[in-house]
Amino acid sequence: MTTIAEIKQTLQHKMDQTIANFKNTLTHIRTGRANPGLLDVVHVDYYGSSVPINQVANVSLLDARTISVQPWEKGMGAKIEKAIRDSDLGLNPASMGDLIRVPMPPMSEERRKEMTKLVRHEGENAKVAVRNLRRDANEHVKKLVKDKVATEDDLKRAEADVQKVTDKHISEIDQMVAGKEKEIMEV
């Protein structure tokens, strides 16, 4: 039989995971600034299997608007360049010997607005996930009361605690959305 403390602990852990997933999602949304995490979604053909770029090359920042990709093997440069060009990121890599430079083109005002909409949408999805976790936790506590393991007072206290945790995570998501929107709208 689970206890209210275990339910709260599980809730906290799952909500923290939701925040971490949302953070990860935000790193893949393009801003005007270069970010090596942007290329994590690009896969390269490596001896017949599709692998992420960061498993065949060193991906880092040259400056605020340029990502550098340094392949670990001589023959991989052209394949990596083609994979970046074929991805739906709209990037145009340029080879400089062994090094591949990926300049970040400036985003149009329209594109920035699209990106902020995407950020808000992802933020809303994260909030929905947090609220679903709140609902599940409350249902678990109610079941304990129904099974006479916990009292009505325990239920009220637990629901208040669950709501506090939920509010904290939702405000964290709102802050992350606001920060990302500010980053996108910077010219």
From TrEMBL:
One term under GO cellular component: cytosol
Coiled-coil positions: 141-168
Keywords, alphabetical: Coiled coil, Cytoplasm, Protein biosynthesis
SUPFAM superfamilies per UniProt: Ribosome recycling factor, RRF (SSF55194)
Location of the Ribosome recycling factor domain: 22-185
One of the GO BP terms on file: cytoplasmic translational termination
CDD domains the record matches: RRF
Pfam (any one): RRF
Compartment(s) of residence: Cytoplasm
GO MF, any single term: ribosomal large subunit binding
Protein biosynthesis is among the record's keywords: yes
Function comment: Responsible for the release of ribosomes from messenger RNA at the termination of protein biosynthesis. May increase the efficiency of translation by recycling ribosomes from one round of translation to another.
Similarity comment: Belongs to the RRF family.
HAMAP family per the UniProt record, alphabetical: RRF (MF_00040)
Protein's name according to its UniProt entry: Ribosome-recycling factor
Originating species: Ramlibacter monticola
